[in-house]
Amino acid sequence: MSNQSEEAPKITSFNGRLSKDGSGEFPVEKGRYHLYVARGCPFANRTLIMRSLKGLEDVISVDVAHWYMHKNGWFFDETGDQCTKDSVNGFQFLRQVYDQTIPNYSGRISVPVLYDKVQKRIVNNESAEIMEILNSDFNEFCPTQAQKELNLFPKEHE
Q1: What is the C-alpha to C-alpha distance for residues 43 and 28, in angstroms, rounded to an integer?
Q2: Digit-coded pLDDT (tens) for 135-155
Q3: Is residue 142 flagged as an active site residue?
Q4: Alpha-carbon distance 38 to 40, whole Å?
Q5: DSSP, residue by residue, 119-153
Q6: What is the DSSP letter of 68?
Q7: Of the candidates 37, 59, 40, 34, the residue with the CA atom closest to the CA atom of residue 48
Q8: Does residue 52 surpass a pLDDT of 50?
């Protein structure tokens, strides 16, 4: 038995997954999810590319934080080139999205963020996992057969 107090590990990432059959915490639904990205982050940009390749622009909304990292972190300012305001919550800083999910969040604030507009919380903030979600979970909403069949994560390359 240790005499030292043990701290719970800090949450630094969100790794939620969607459920296609609706049985999980985050069911696949058109219009329910939102991407927060910043063009200054290559990991966020790749989720935008995947969203476009799969034709999900009308399925998953997006807001783009300013490319410049403010002293308070990623911020929303529609006057910046290709930047938007936060159209979901009206927040000024991405930190507020994290604090909405976990009050007084003390981990790293990063993009991209896949956000559930119904539950008002972050689903996932790991770009590789968001890419996997976009690759297959929303196929039923892809506008063309080619986009439905597009698979950038084939099993033979795992």
Answers
A1: 23
A2: 999 999 999 999 999 999 877
A3: no
A4: 5
A5: TTEEEE--HHHHHHHHHHTTGGG-SSHHHHH--SS
A6: S
A7: 37
A8: yes
**Cβ contacts of 88-92, under 8 Å, gap ≥ 24:** 88/34, 88/61, 88/63, 88/115, 88/117, 89/120
pLDDT at 70 over 80: yes
**In whole angstroms, what is the distance from residue 110 CA to residue 89 CA?**
17
Sign of CA dihedral 86, 17, 46, 111: positive
Structure token pair of residue 56: 């999900």
- The whole-number average pLDDT for the span 1-30 is 75
Q: Exactly one of 28, 41, 62, 111 is catalytic; which is it?
A: 41
- Rounded Cα distance between 49 and 117, Å, is 21
